[in-house]
TrEMBL record:
Signal sequence extent: 1-24
Topological type in the membrane: Single-pass membrane protein
Domain Wall-associated receptor kinase galacturonan-binding: 27-88
UniProt protein name: Wall-associated receptor kinase galacturonan-binding domain-containing protein
Keywords from the UniProt entry: Membrane, Signal, Transmembrane, Transmembrane helix
One Pfam family it belongs to: GUB_WAK_bind
InterPro entries found in the cross-reference section: WAK_GUB
Keyword Plastid recorded: no
Transmembrane region(s): 276-297
Provenance organism: Castilleja foliolosa
Length: 298
């Protein structure tokens, strides 16, 4: 075989391996306009495996939270306080009222209701709903007795006032307690709709300026420690993820689509002496050996 044929053959080998180094990054650090950081991810193998079944980035670049009661848009994430805010398209607000089936969290989901969330059940039956006691004073055993102000303000909204509902048909959960099943079944409670508020924007007496939605808190783990490997991965421009195999072990997804067990600094190996990525050394060896053979025949 002449030198030109050998060079052609070995160049073909190089081209075969090039896609491995030029594939796009599998995991991304944004979904639409929302920054994505651990423990969340944009697809399988990204973020923390406990969160992957519940939080996903759609093809329309919309981050969503899925539970057994529906799919909800994630409007913001506060990574400092570890709070996720979501909106429910069936929820009533000061500007719009609509019937709703309610809201629920999966019992095994890694979320809990944040203390700032206030649920107001609307248009509940005062005669047959289980939230009322069957005694003379008709108190609210399942509701917050201090929630009358919120009910009164909600009833002052144009959208709700047009329904001409008595204030007694509004029931406030604060703090939120949906029981061991984490579910608000409005059909069972015999309420037509609900409203949820997690902030007042300094306008406590103006329901039109409230922040409507549901605030959920999350933890990284039992001790709520940010994983050190993940911190190193993100500092190296990687995205924290996991091996999709049975072990679900940690993986750092790097630009170019490579996964490492540490971080993405392996890309600086040649110039700064940092460590190589285990498992990709073989590719580097193929390049080195191939070019050595080519040079030997030139």
């Amino acid at each position: 075989m002449n030198p030109k044929s050998i060079i052609t053959l070995l160049s073909s080998i190089l081209i075969t391996f090039l896609p491995t180094l030029t594939t796009s990054q599998t995991c991304h650090n944004t979904c639409g306009k929302l920054p994505i950081k651990y423990p969340f991810g944009t697809g399988p193998g990204c973020g923390d495996p406990r969160f992957q079944p519940y939080v996903a980035c759609t093809q329309q670049q919309q981050l969503t939270l899925s539970t057994h009661t529906g799919c909800y848009t994630v409007t913001s994430i506060d990574y400092n306080t570890q709070v996720v805010h979501i909106s429910d398209p069936t929820m009533s607000t000061c500007s719009c009222t609509r019937p709703s089936p309610g809201f629920g969290l999966n019992y095994d989901a890694p979320f809990a209701f944040h203390d700032s969330t206030v649920f107001a059940l609307l248009d509940c039956s005062t005669t047959s709903s289980p939230i009322y006691k069957g005694n003379n004073n008709s108190t609210f055993p399942m509701c917050d007795s201090q929630g009358e102000d919120i009910c009164g303000l909600l009833n002052s909204c144009d959208a709700i006032s047009r329904l001409s509902l008595p204030i007694s048909t509004c029931c406030v959960y604060a703090p939120v307690d949906l029981g061991p099943s984490f579910e608000m079944d409005l059909e069972k409670l015999q309420c037509e709709s609900y409203s949820a508020v997690y902030g007042y924007n300094g306008q406590e007496s103006n329901p039109a300026g409230w922040e409507y939605g549901i605030a959920l808190k999350y933890k990284f783990n039992y001790k709520n420690d940010y994983p050190g490997l993940c911190a190193s991965c993100e500092k190296s421009n990687g995205v924290c993820g996991y091996d999709c195999g049975p072990s679900a072990s940690f993986a750092c997804n790097c630009p170019g689509g490579l996964n490492t067990t540490t971080d993405c600094f392996f890309g600086q190996t040649w110039s700064f002496g940092s460590r190589f990525f285990p498992g990709k050394i073989g590719i580097f060896s193929v390049f080195s050996s191939t070019w050595f053979v080519i040079l030997a025949f030139m």
